[in-house]
Amino acid sequence: MVLAQPTVPGGDPTASRRRFLRTAFWAGAGLTVAGAVVALGRFLQTTATPQPGQVRVAADKLPKPGSAPLYVADARCYLVNLRPGEGGFRSVPGSADGGLVALYQACTHAGCKLPWRPDFVFGSVSGWFRCPCHSATYTKAGICVFGPAQRNMDTLALQREPDGAATVRVAPLLRGAPRPPAP
C-alpha cells in the first residue's frame, strides 16, 4: 500500500518546501549583510575613540570646576575639575591654578578600586576618595592624607581639544608623587 503525498492546490509539495528554504536563506543573508553594514558604519565613526588607547570625553560631559568627579569607565579614571586652591588638606596645599585632571581609579596601596565618596566626612571636610579595602583616603586632587598608601593617586595624560572636549590617554600610568608628610 502506497500512501499518497499531500498536495498543495496548484503545485508539487516538494517545490513548496524548496521555495520556503530558498526564501528563508535569502532573507537570512539579507539580514546578515544589513547588520554588517550597520556595524561597519559604527566602526567608522570617529566620535567614540580617536585612536587606540585614548578615550574622548565630549565638552558637555566634562565636570564643571568644583563639581563632583566624573567616572569614565572606558579610561578607568575619574575626571576632576579643580578650582584654584581646591584639593588640599590642612598643611597640604591644593591645586595652584585648578583645572582638569585624570585620576586613575586604583588605590596606590593594594590596587583596590577607589570610589568617590561625597558623603564621607574626614577632618570636618566632606567628599573624598576612600579605599574600601584598607581605608586610604585621598583628597579630590588625589593627594593621600590617611592610611597605608605611600604615594598619591596615579594620573593619566590628558589633552584638551579645540572644541572643548578632553582626550584621556589610558597608558602609561603616571606614578603618583610620594605621600606628603603628616602635619
Attribute tags:
elongated; alpha+beta; four-stranded antiparallel beta sheet; 2 domains; Rieske Iron-sulfur Protein; 183 residues
Task: Record the SSE blueprint.
Blueprint: H1 13-44, E1 54-57, E2 70-72, E3 77-82, E4 99-104, E5 116-122, E6 125-130, E7 137-138, E8 144-146, E9 155-156, E10 158-160, E11 166-169
Write a brief caption for the model:
The protein is of the alpha+beta class and 183 residues long.
Rg calculated over all Cα atoms: 29 Å
Uncertain residue segments: none
Total strand count, please? Answer: 11
Strand order, sheet with most strands: 2-3-4-9
Write the CATH homologous superfamily of the largest domain. Rieske [2Fe-2S] iron-sulphur domain
**Helix/strand class:** alpha+beta
Task: Describe this structure as you would to a colleague.
- This protein has one helix at 13-44, and strands spanning 54-57, 70-72, 77-82, 99-104, 116-122, 125-130, 137-138, 144-146, 155-156, 158-160, 166-169.
- The protein is 17% helix and 25% strand.
- It has 2 domains: 11-45; 54-169, Rieske [2Fe-2S] iron-sulphur domain (Rieske Iron-sulfur Protein, 3-layer Sandwich).
- The protein is elongated.
- The strands form 3 sheets. Strands 2-3-4-9 form a 4-stranded antiparallel sheet, with no helix packed on it. It has a 4-stranded antiparallel sheet with strand order 5-6-7-8, with no helix packed on it.
- It is of the alpha+beta class.
- The model has no long low-confidence stretch (mean pLDDT 84).
- The longest helix has 32 residues, at 13-44.
